[in-house]
């Protein structure tokens, strides 16, 4: 572990010593989706320097948050995955993502969306109570990023890539944030071309109801 400590006998302080360094929680976010090779993590976090990724992974391994595993097929490859202890962070990451989504606003010029970040965003904004009795498959396309969600009576399954037999395919861009934040209705999104749909267009309103970003808040003034 690094030498940075807070001098506090406190669970929060100890947690920050483990995952409070820059990039650590984003690594945990991506591993919460599934095991990754080093190159997969670099691709999903393109701005992280290679040496920083190596350091963070080593620190997380030493803290029993992450472990390495060798996959024998099709060729021997080392993947990183969350340990049982590390999986305890999944709900924390989801809740933190939901909290942070309140101040997302419009994407900054240099910001990107990745499959893992979008999958975790779907998990973070999902409202099981709004999905009771609903069964449908959704495919979400944001440029080259394609993810899917299958809803089954309040239960959610997410993954990367196309969904065979999807009830609704949604092709969109940054407007998806406004749609899920309730700033844009499904009818408005269809009418102004913010979304392009294939399948049952009536499901878009249901999708927006089940996946909701908390209303934005004004930034604190000095």
UniProtKB/TrEMBL annotation:
For whether the record's keyword set contains Transport, the answer is no
Q: What PROSITE patterns does the record point to? A: HTH_HXLR
Q: Which InterPro entries match?
A: HTH_HxlR (IPR002577), SCP2_sterol-bd_dom_sf (IPR036527), WH-like_DNA-bd_sf (IPR036388), WH_DNA-bd_sf (IPR036390)
Q: Which residues form the signal peptide?
A: none
**Keyword Lipid biosynthesis annotated:** no
Q: By its UniProt entry, which PANTHER family does this protein fall under?
A: TRANSCRIPTIONAL REGULATOR, MARR FAMILY (PTHR33204), TRANSCRIPTIONAL REGULATORY PROTEIN (PTHR33204:SF18)
- Protein name listed in UniProt: ORFD
Q: Which organism is it from?
A: Saccharopolyspora erythraea (Streptomyces erythraeus)
Show the taxonomic lineage: Bacteria, Bacillati, Actinomycetota, Actinomycetes, Pseudonocardiales
